[in-house]
Amino acid sequence: MLKIENLSKTYSNGTQALHDVSFEVEEGEFLAVIGLSGSGKSTLLRCINRLIEPTSGKITWNGVDITAASGKDIRKIRRQIGMVFQQFNLVKRSSVNTNVLSGRLGYVPTFPSLFHVFSKEDHQRVTKTLNMVGLADKIDVRADSLSGGQQQRVGIARALMQDPKMILADEPVASLDPVLAHSILKYLEQLNKEFGMTVLCSLHFLDLVHRYATRAIALKDGNLVFQGLPKEIDDVQFKAIYGKDAERIEVI
Amino acid sequence: MNPEVSKKNTSDKLRILLPFLSIFIPGSSQIIVKKTWRGISILIFTSLLGFLVNWSFQNYKIGQVTLFEGASYSWLWIPFLLFYGWNIADAFLLAKNKKSPALIAIIAAALILYVIGWSVTGVKMERLVTRYDDAKVVMKRLFNPDFFTVHDGDKVDICSWDCLWNYMKAKINGTEAPQVTFSQNTGQIFGQKGTITASRWDVLLGKATINQRIPGFETGKLIETIAIGLMATLFSTILAVPVSFLAAHNVMRRVPGGSIIYYISRTLLNIVRAVDTVVWGLIIIVWVGLGSFAGVIALTIHSIAALAKLFSEEIEHIDPGPVEAIEATGGNFFQVIRYGVIPQIIPSFLSYTLLRWDINMRSATVIGFVAGGGIGFFVVETIRMGGYQQYAAALWAVAVVIIIVDYISSRWRFNILKDQPKAVDKIPTWKKIRTILYIVLGIAAFLYCWEITRIDLKKLLDPGPTFGRLLKDFVSIDTTGKVINNIVRELIITTMQALMATTLGGVLAIPFSFLAAKNLTGKSKFSAWIFVITRGVFNVLRSIEALLYVAIFVYWVGIGPYAGMLALSITTFALMGKLFSEAIENIDSGPIEAINATGANKLQSIIYAIVPQIVPPFLSYLIYQWDINIRMATIIGFAGGGGIGLMLSTFFGSLQYHKAGTVILAIVIIVAVMDFTSAKIREKFV
Question: Residue A105 belongs to what domain range?
Fold first, then answer.
């Protein structure tokens, strides 16, 4: 169980990105995080694996205090949490193989990894995960020669290499066409349903939330303004989250 | 029978036999299995390395080891065999459709090249230490330039920083101090009162007769340099525009017979560009004699070629849409150019002109080494007299001017290319007046520059006495064995100088470039200072041409290729440091975040997220620098830096134009070959 208590984050330029946010996520949930751009979704997800240091508050995961972990411990925690990014964050000039293999970096000894030496199991794992995301034939091509949807699947494969118990997805489909959005989210759904991984996914479109999430939270200006089932987001809630000028739009 | 199938059958049989071909002719089987470039480069590299090992052993006994019965061989044949063996292995692996690791080949080739390079450029690392005292002397003088003179009674002395400091202190405290004035040297650099040859304007106004010496303000050598750079830029831009249309394929295609003109002009431009400005200077002084005018012409010629190439590429890349639209309205060839082409190319032309102005200013500082005008001439003179403090003053003055020029040029270029749509409102009156003022000032500056660079178009029609012979001898060049052998030797030295300098300067630049990257230095005060200092050092070192540095190293490690190599390394270090640090600043932080999120540690994140992002730009910049260094190495000899330049100036000095022509041809060939190679490498790896 992931437990977030009174989490706040204020950046050095004074922006308060998160304000006293508390919620819980049960094992095996697909939690959607919604809210406008700049509402603190990215900051929240990044605080969970401490890519961003929270200013105050406490995050515990299965009894381990993430906020208190330091150095080596935080890396041990990170390797159990896969992360998927809006801009995919692949090393563009490296091959798909290298990009996917880099998901193992938290597990392998440092010295061999500096010379791209990985075990046989790791290489087999690459083949397996690439098969899963349907990119087995692209293993040797450069990451930047792939389309956006393919790049995001490589991003998912990289996260899967970590053998994660939880996936943090920061707007994984915001840079993709609506059709591709479904294909990516279906992978996340599969991981959630078949492998029981907890998924925290920030999303823009409400109908994607209805379709995939088991539960949702909403942020507005760094405050938690909603938590509950996706279907509970009615028009009143919607206006509260997105402002009174917002209109619902449908994607395919 | 299906031709596809039969082809496949024969190729299957061939596949087994093919790799054996590479045992006899390296690269041959690679060429046949459609890896043409790989095969050709293996063939060329194998022959080149073999030639170099043999040549260096015959001429310099490089790598000599004595085996049984006194027979001696070069141990460099071992890496050569390794390279050869790799070629065979590569052929066999290729036949099985496998990739072979090129690392062994690269290491073997690099070993051969660097061992030979180290020897022929006369690298003596210990000299940097054993001659440290000389270095200290020269450094002390460099940091105490001769700008001020102190008058202590009848004694006149150079007033360096400590003297100046004492003087300032005395002035502030109001105590008695010896008089300090600008020195004679400063006057020569920036200008001073003296006697001058009457200008044309004085003659026109009836104040003086032609060539009369009258009292006036002597132009400083630095001012003369600025004028040379300005005039050359102006002339070359005006002349390059029409030439560039002749060298633009999309324009010439529309003219009958234009394709032929296109190929001829492109070839000519490439040849002219391959010969450095300073070498052009040597030719031009035979034509119009020593002086600033020769410098202006030399710069202009080289600059026309460089600009016309850039301009024509710009013309080739314009949007064909507007051209099509003007044609559709029934416009003729000239109308299409005027309304479809010119509006599209003006911003980039301006920006290239500004870039060229920067380059021309730098060239103007060294053109005096041969053409006898500007600060370069002054530097030659002061070094000849051992006036290192006077030389230092010139260097610092050049650095300041070039840094300012660099700043203005890049600032203007940035503004031009920002390409903001401007409102076409009514222009306010004060802006109109300002424009008129600028035009008047521009004309005045132009006339002043015309005067001080002593431009005399009549001289162009009245070439020097040996110019005719030069032209004749350049056509019938000397290709006797002895000359060719000497040229080959000097060419190898020159190329090796460029190789060693690019490596040394590039490797040194890497650690420093991290200190000069804003995104890495962090926010603390201390690291902010490190950033400012490193960038500052890069900028100051970069502002001075390699040719001007040679004198320092000649003093330090002695005359010869080693000194030239070190001078080239300094400019390489400075430019690469700047470009590397900018490349580091431009890396994408996303992948770093992603790698960190996998639980990787700092080292792993550097190797997996940062290194892959900076290696390609670093390589690309090194190749770019390599092109520059090859050109620079051909002239570094003029200042005592060894290589082919010394040979060239000797041949010119002794009027052996037959041989000089051969050297220039050799330079053109080597520069063209290296340009081609580096372009290919860049295509392949970057």
Answer: 92-163
